[in-house]
Amino acid sequence: MTTTENSFMLGLDSNFYLKDDFESPEKRTNVTWFYPKICGFQDALRTEQEKAEYFSFLDRQTHPQQTDILLYFHIPFCEAFCNFCACFKESSAKYQGEQRVRFVKAMVKEIERNARSAYFQGTKIKYVQFGGGTPSALDQESMATIIQAVHREFDLSEVDGISLEGSPLGLSTDGYIEMLKSLGITRISFGVQTLNEEIRRKLTIKATVEQVYQTAENIRKAGIRTFALDLMYNLAGQTDEILASDIHGICAELRPSFVQTYRFNQWEGTRLDKQIRAGKVSDVLPSGSIERVQYRQIKESLADYGYDKQLLINFFTHLDETGPIGLDHACGGNGYRASYTLGIGPAAENYMGERSYRNHTNVDRWIKDVEDGIIPIEQGRICSEDEVENRVMVFFPVFGTVRKADVANLEKYRREINWMVDSGYAVETDEDITLTEVGRENAGNIAFLFYSDEEKARARRTMYLSLKNKRNPFHQDEMNIPRTPVFLQSKLATRPADSSTGPKAG
C-alpha cells in the first residue's frame, strides 16, 4: 500500500508537523484520548516483584485531593461484534453461568481492593463511566451487583454523574433502563453509527434500526437525565447523501441530548480492512479527503438542527445547561492538575499521576489474577515529568481551548503556540488559547505537536511492533485480526503474490 493510505501511520511521522502540508487530506490523524500511552510490547510487567514495586504507591500514599478521579469500568462483553470496532471484547454468550458469576465477583473484588487501599481513603470520585465492550450485555442482576459495590465502596457524595454505554440489544430488555436509573445512572449512550440498513449489515451491526428508535424512546420515558448517540462518518459506502439522512434521523427523530461523532478508523490488518481493500464492501471507500468534507458537513448540519454547542472536538449538544459529560474528566479535565483515571476490568486503562498502566487484555487471566489476589495488569510504566507536564497541552485540542493559567510552563510550548497562531489554527489572548475552525478540524494533528520526543518515538515503535506481530495497534491484542492456521502459514509464505486480487495490505 502507499503511505497515504494509512492516516494513523502518517500521524506518527514526526516530520509532518509545522509544514505547509499540515492540512493534507491524508494527514488528519486521531484525536488523543489517552496520554501518556502504553504499549504491550514496550511496557510489560512480567514478574510479581515488578508489579508489587510498581503498585506500592497504593498502600504508602494518599491521593492528592486537588486532582479529580474518573472511575472507569471496562465490561468486555458484546452480544455481537461490529467489525469496525478495535476495542477489547469477548462474546457475552461465552461467559454465562459460573463464568459470569466469577466475572462479577472479580469486578467486586477489584473494586474493594482499590477502594480500601490507603491511596483512596477519603477520596471523592468525580465521575463514573461504564464502557466496553457493551456494559448492557450484562444481565440486570450482574450489573446491579457491580453498581451497588461502587456505591458501597467509593465516596460518590460529590460525583458529577454516572454514565453507561450500551446497545439497543441489551437496553431494550424489559426493565433494564429502569433498573439503571434506580441505581443512579444519570447518562446513557449507545452507538447508532449509521441508520443505513445496507451499511449496518456490512458493518455487522446486529441491532435493528427499529430497536434504535425504540431504545431512544425508552430512555426518555424512564427519565434518564441525558443520553447521547454516536454517529460515525467516512464509512465505506457512506455518501454525503447517506450521511445527511443519518444526521436527520438522529437530530430530528431520535433527538438525543448529545451527539458524539467519530471518524472511521481503518485499522490495518483487521478483517474489515482486508474486505475494504478487496473491494467487497463498497465502491465508495474511506479516504482522507472524504473525511474532511464529511466532518464539515456534520458540523454545519448539526448546527442547523440546533446542536450548535461544541463541548469537545466530537461532542455536540442543543442543551444550554449541559452539566458534566464524563469525557471531560476522561481527557484529563483540561487543567494543570489533570484528572486521573482508575480503570477496573479487563483491558481497562489507568492513569495515576506519573503511572500509566493497563489491565490484562484476557478475561480469563484477569479473573484468575483477581481471584488469586494478584494485581491483574500486563503492562505499565512510570512516565517522565516532561510527559506528565505535557498532558494539559496534548488534551487541549479535545476541548478546543485551554486557560493559560492551567499550563504549568507555558513558555515551554511557545514555538508551537506561535506557529499555530501565525498559521491560523489558534487565537491567543491574555487568558487563553483557542483553536479556530480550521484548528478544530486538525485537532488530532495539533495534539501530536505536544507529544514528547520520547512519546513520538514510542508511538511509531508501537505501530511497527503491532504490525510485525500481527496485533491490533489499539491495544496490541488480537481484536478483529484474522489468525492464519499454523498449517497454512508456511504455504502462504512461499506462495507468489497474485496481483489480480486487488490492493495488498502491505
UniProtKB/TrEMBL annotation:
One Pfam family this chain carries? Radical_SAM
Which SUPFAM superfamilies does this one have?
Radical SAM enzymes
Q: Which domain of life is it from?
A: Bacteria
Q: Which UniProt keywords apply?
A: Iron, Iron-sulfur, Metal-binding, S-adenosyl-L-methionine
Q: Which residues form the Radical SAM core domain?
A: 63-308
Coiled coil regions, renumbered to chain: none
In Swiss-Prot or TrEMBL terms, this protein is called Heme chaperone HemW
